[in-house]
């Protein structure tokens, strides 16, 4: 994406706020008009002082009164303009951040799986903030600077055309210097944004998994990784800062030459009677005011280039194709009887690496289906396809005889209750976490679900019971307790179908027996898919699917599979073989 394309997108963000922007421009005109009127008044005031004893006091006081009024009006208009600028900037940033977060919820799961959480977080939070800083400075200085330059040219032309042309002809030198350096800073600020995102990812990874880091004594290696990226960020940051920092001194040097040229040429013009001393002072003020916006704009270049680099990362994220929307005529999946059919389903995450191949399964309503097999055989992938986190490459999946592509995702997923091996809790009370999928649930319903999950007893022992606040990672409760809360969350919903992916892996044996009993009651009459490594937990399943290398190599009941003496039998015996 080129700078021009980025600017077009930025301007499209500003379009809804065009009234405020027009108001800013009008205020800028007023502010600049009175700012440029001040040098004329100063020149008139100087001309009222002819010499010793020759001072026109009444005229001088009149000029000073006008000068005071011009200064007050300028200050008020600049203050109001800054208020509007802040309002527009923060509103645009708010809308952009909302748009980015909304898009985050629409991107396919595959994008989330392929990208580091820290990088995505950096785009939605950090890059938008950096973009805000550059945009704010651009609003408050760029508009005023441009109007000041144009206004100064007009006022200078009214005093002396030749001196004005001298200033105007030297201006392109300043613009060339600023443009030459700015073209090189964008690439460096872009690299800086990327390194900043990498650093955010490393911090997020190490902080979020601090227990694992310490358990494996990874602190030294983690610090080395952090220092390596931090050093790279420092290097590209210094380069970007070096090039951006020489913009202002370079333009100031050129502008100093302009001011010197005006002073010398103007002095000769005064001696030749071309202009008065007061007019020369006015002209020197204009020359200074004329060059000042270039200095300000050149200092804005740094922030603008950084903002553009961040804006590019934001717009790149916003252009990630959203998840394929539901079909326009998609149905709401209701009245689910629990029957599931996989008809010649094939799927792979990467085209050149096949995974599931020609899977055919027919599940009757209320059956308990266990999926077992070695790591990487496709068990979790089956769950991803059932929930339509990914779409099949070939074949079709039907729920209650309805192809899942023909129903809305929300209605499909609302018919499944999921308990995963990896627990997730949000920062909030225990009550809020259990009611995550049903916010309007009553306390009685929540307590009933907790009792069914055998979580009620430990919750009552907490300081505030169901109103106890837990952290996002649940640091103040055990892993097993977190798992029980996740189970209670599903039990509150009573969905027609269940997916249990190693749902009791973090629970002690005694509690597991209780939860298995609760699951037995919960699964009664409901179609259930259970992914398990501990084969002792799936003996009572109606059908066991044995997977290997993306294929179902065996299926049947526990007793049937043991009697065949095949892969499942070996897998089962390996877990219970005497040591």
**Helix run count:** 19
Number of β-strand runs:
14
- The assigned structural class equals alpha/beta
Taken as a percent bin, the fraction of beta residues is 5-15%
Molecular structure report:
With 579 residues, this protein is of the alpha/beta class. It folds into 2 domains: 3-193 and 236-318, ABC transporter type 1, transmembrane domain (ABC transporter transmembrane region fold, Up-down Bundle), CATH 1.20.1560.10; 340-576, Rossmann fold, CATH 3.40.50. It has helices at 3-14, 18-47, 57-104, 109-114, 117-159, 161-208, 210-215, 219-245, 247-271, 277-318, 379-386, 409-414, 430-434, 443-452, 456-460, 479-493, 509-523, 558-564, 567-576, and strands at 49-51, 54-55, 340-347, 356-363, 368-372, 394-399, 402-403, 416-419, 428-429, 469-470, 497-501, 527-531, 543-548, 551-556. Strands 8-11-12-5-13-14 form a 6-stranded mixed β-sheet, with helices on both faces. A 4-stranded antiparallel β-sheet has the order 4-3-6-7, with helices on one face. A two-stranded antiparallel ribbon has the order 1-2. A hairpin with an 8-residue loop joins strand 3 and strand 4 (356-363). Helix 14 (443-452) packs across helix 16 (479-493). The longest helix is centred in the N-terminal third of the chain and has 48 residues, at 57-104. The radius of gyration is 36 Å and the shape is elongated. The model has no long low-confidence stretch (mean pLDDT 79).
């Amino acid at each position: 994406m080129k700078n021009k394309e980025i600017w077009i997108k930025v301007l499209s963000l500003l379009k809804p706020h065009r009234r405020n922007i027009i108001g800013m421009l009008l205020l800028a005109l007023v502010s600049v008009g009175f700012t440029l009127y001040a040098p004329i008044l100063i020149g008139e005031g100087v001309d009222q002082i002819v010499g010793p004893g020759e001072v026109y006091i009444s005229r001088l006081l009149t000029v000073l009164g006008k000068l005071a009024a011009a200064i007050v009006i300028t200050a008020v208009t600049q203050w109001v303009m800054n208020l509007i600028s802040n309002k527009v900037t923060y509103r645009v940033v708010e809308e952009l951040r909302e748009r980015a977060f909304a898009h985050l919820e629409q991107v396919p799961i595959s994008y989330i799986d392929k990208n580091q959480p820290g990088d995505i977080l950096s785009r939605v939070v950090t890059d938008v903030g950096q973009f805000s800083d550059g945009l704010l400075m651009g609003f408050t200085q760029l508009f005023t600077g441009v109007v000041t330059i144009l206004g100064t040219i007009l006022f200078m032309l009214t005093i002396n055309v030749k001196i004005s042309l001298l200033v105007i002809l030297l201006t392109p030198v300043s613009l060339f210097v600023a443009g030459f350096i700015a073209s090189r800073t964008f690439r460096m600020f872009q690299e800086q944004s990327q390194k900043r995102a990498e650093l955010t990812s490393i911090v997020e990874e190490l902080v979020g998994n601090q227990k694992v880091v310490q358990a494996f004594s990874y602190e030294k290696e983690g610090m080395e990784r952090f220092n390596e990226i931090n050093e790279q960020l420092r290097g590209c940051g210094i380069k970007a800062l070096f090039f951006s920092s020489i913009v202002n001194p370079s333009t100031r040097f050129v502008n100093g030459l302009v001011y010197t040229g005006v002073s010398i040429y103007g002095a000769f013009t005064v001696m030749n009677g071309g202009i008065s001393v007061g007019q020369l002072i006015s002209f020197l003020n204009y020359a200074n005011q004329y060059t000042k916006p270039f200095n300000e704009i050149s200092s804005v270049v740094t922030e603008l280039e950084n903002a553009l680099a961040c804006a590019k990362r934001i717009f790149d994220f916003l252009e990630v194709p959203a998840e394929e929307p539901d079909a326009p005529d998609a149905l709401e999946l209701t009245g689910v009887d629990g029957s599931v059919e996989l008809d010649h389903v094939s799927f792979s995450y990467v085209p050149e690496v096949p995974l599931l191949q020609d899977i055919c399964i027919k599940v009757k309503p209320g059956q308990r289906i266990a999926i077992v097999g070695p790591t990487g055989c496709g068990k979790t992938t089956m769950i991803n396809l059932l929930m339509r986190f990914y779409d099949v490459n070939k074949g079709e999946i039907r729920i209650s005889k309805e192809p899942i592509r023909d129903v809305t995702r929300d209605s499909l997923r609302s018919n499944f209750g999921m308990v995963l091996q990896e627990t997730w809790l949000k920062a909030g009370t225990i009550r809020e976490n259990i009611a995550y999928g049903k916010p309007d649930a009553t306390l009685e319903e929540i307590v009933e679900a907790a009792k069914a999950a055998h979580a009620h007893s430990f919750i009552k022992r907490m300081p505030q019971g169901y109103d106890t606040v837990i952290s996002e990672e649940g640091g103040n409760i055990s892993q097993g307790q977190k798992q029980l809360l996740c189970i209670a969350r599903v039990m509150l919903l009573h969905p027609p179908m269940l997916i249990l992916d190693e749902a009791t892996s973090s629970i002690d044996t005694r509690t597991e027996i209780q939860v298995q009993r609760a699951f037995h009651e919960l699964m009664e009459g409901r179609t259930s898919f259970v992914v398990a490594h501990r084969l002792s937990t799936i003996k009572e399943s109606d059908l066991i699917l044995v997977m290997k290398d993306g294929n179902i190599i065996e299926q049947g009941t526990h007793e049937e599979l043991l009697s065949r003496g095949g892969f499942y039998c070996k897998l089962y015996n390996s877990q219970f073989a005497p040591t």
